[in-house]
Amino acid sequence: MTGQLTAGTGTGPRPGGEEPAARHDTAASEQRRGRRPGAVATMVRLTAGHRPAIVAATVLTLAGSAIGLAQPLLARRIVDTAGHGGVTGPLLLLAGLFTAEAVTGAVGRFLLERMGEGVIRTLRHGLVSHLLRLDMREYGRHRSGDLISRVTADTTVLREATAQALVDLVTGLLVSAGALALMAWLDPLLLLLVTATVAAAALIVTSLLSGIRSAAERTQQAVGDIAADLERALGALPMVRVHCAEAREAARIGTRVDSAYSAGVRTAMLASFMSSAVELAVQGSFLVVLVVGGMRVGGADSLGELVAFLLYASYLVVPLSSVFRAVGLLQRGMGAYERVDQALALPGESPGTAARRPHAPGKGPAAEETPAALTLRNVHFGYHPGRPVLRGVSLSVPYRGQVALVGRSGAGKTTIFSLAARFYDPEAGLLLFDGRPATELTRRQCRERLALVDQNTHVVHGTLWDNITYAVPDAPSGEVERVVRLANLTDVVERLPGGLGCVLGERGATLSGGERQRVALARALLTRPSLLLLDEPTSHLDAINEAALSQVMRDVAQECALLVIAHRLSTVQNADRIHVLDAGRVIASGTHDELLLTSPAYRRLATAQTLREAGDRPAG
């Protein structure tokens, strides 16, 4: 909403600020990387609430591995006693061990997968909640598609690391240690040869880890850029089609796709080298054991001992592979977590100061003698340092009646609405609700008093009923029918298949601009606000609906405070008070007739409007 609210002033945060934000994220991430705990410590912290599941999965995995470690010893006995009969019992026991290992492994893996899903669910809940409550300036600095990608794509990569890597690393190391101990007991010389080949592979893997992490982070960044650019194109699809820009947008997004491809290929290349190093180490170890051990059979070593050692050497493949794979997954997961952490580090909107006393209009040292629904006293504000938008604005909106803001584009009208909605706080001056400073109220308490109809009307995917009752989901049908009549939506309800139950589609594509505006008005009226903010309420309406809305505004002004922004003076000429803004200041105030006599700026606006309307009329 902030982009739409601030766009009207011509001075708010601009789309396209994502590049400086991206550079800021990169620099900040590099600073954090120097002081952040390692990958294992991070995973331990992420899984802190799932320790019972991790312990159970680890115990089951170790139990399955212990069962597996017993199998080579049993196989040695079967081989050594095969010529003497009596192997049926050991064979049945071996089959039972195989089954038990499979069952415990399956249960342990399920617990891990469920734990991973739980961790990501918690992380996504936190991310969604945080992103919906960011400081409004952050939405101008970061692209919404990229922020969405951090909730979806990045957490998906992170899930694999949390679900598998940590336990695989621990159990793999323990099982490898057990297998190596048994191999040392069987033949220390062969173990030394195996250790040498594994150490060589470990050196190669270690040298590739940092590259895997950086490449994975670049991949996730490129995926976020794809989502952001695609959201940009789809959000302005009519403009794209009219200007025949499909090919240019496809090419623009294609460069992001190519970047993701390049980063993904680099990640795959490094991971492939790592996998090959592990496979060569394992195969080399097996060949060394087979050749050297085979040459020694018949001497001090028995065939059964060689078979057992070979089984342990082959059994070592699984835990070692899981260790190396876990290390790679941790690095990829940390690349994704870097972006998630950046999003979580963005400053959120402060809730405001909690109310220190029950609401009592007109009471307290800072309260007005005759409180109004909304008051601005000498308010100064700017979206960027050194670039003021409001320069000492003072005005008030009484509990009943209509107040209008007029002026050229960029005068600061929409910025006043942004302050009234507590999207931003004044840099200087006072903002008061019901005579009480906004600083004594939470943002929620302020927003519960008002409703807003933005010039860029918002219609969400869902039914017409869902959109009208968005702020009051449990509204009774009688209230909904009342606001439908007030907003002159009856003909729309009758036209749509299913009436109020008709699904409107993405961004209300099935409605015209004027119909979307009337839906937004009905939504606002349903809350029965004490202050109603209307930003260009007639911008999409024809003459008949504009006249109907003017009557609605007069009726509403008898029930609540009404603050209106309008370029069409016909919309506000019956207002109780009109404030003329120019360059962030109120330069004149009064009724329509008074301002025509006393304000040159207002006369120019009125003359320009009259000429425009005359030019729009068909020739006689």
Compact summary:
The protein has 620 residues and is an alpha/beta fold. It has helices at residues 2-7, 18-35, 39-46, 51-80, 88-131, 136-141, 144-186, 188-235, 237-242, 246-296, 303-315, 317-345, 413-420, 443-447, 464-468, 477-486, 490-495, 513-526, 543-556, 569-572, 592-598, 600-616, and strands at residues 374-381, 390-397, 401-407, 428-433, 436-437, 450-453, 531-535, 561-565, 577-582, 585-590. Belongs to the ABC transporter superfamily. Lipid exporter (TC 3.A.1.106) family.
How would you characterize the overall build of this protein?
This protein is of the alpha/beta class. It has three domains: 17-345, ABC transporter type 1, transmembrane domain (ABC transporter transmembrane region fold, Up-down Bundle); 363-449 and 531-540 and 557-620, Rossmann fold (3-Layer(aba) Sandwich); 455-528, P-loop containing nucleotide triphosphate hydrolases (Rossmann fold), CATH 3.40.50.300. Helix content is 63%, strand content 9%. It is built from 22 helices and ten strands. The protein has a six-stranded mixed beta sheet, sandwiched between helices. A four-stranded antiparallel beta sheet has the order 2-1-4-5, with helices on one face. It is elongated, with a radius of gyration of 35 Å. Residues 1-24, 26-36 and 355-368 have low confidence and may be disordered.
SS elements, strand count: 10
Helical stretch tally: 22
Radius of gyration (Å): 35 Å
Total number of distinct structural domains:
3
Strand content: 5-15%
Main structural class: alpha/beta
> Which spans have pLDDT < 50 for at least 5 consecutive residues?
1-24, 26-36, 355-368
Largest sheet: 6 strands, mixed
Mean pLDDT: 75
* The named CATH superfamily of the largest domain: ABC transporter type 1, transmembrane domain
Choose one word for the global shape.
elongated
- CATH topology description of the largest domain: ABC transporter transmembrane region fold
Q: Supply the CATH architecture of the largest domain.
A: Up-down Bundle
Q: What is the CATH top level name of the largest domain? A: Mainly Alpha
State the strand order across the main sheet. 6-7-8-3-9-10
N-end to C-end Cα span: 43 Å
Kindly state the percentage of residues in helix. Answer: 55-70%
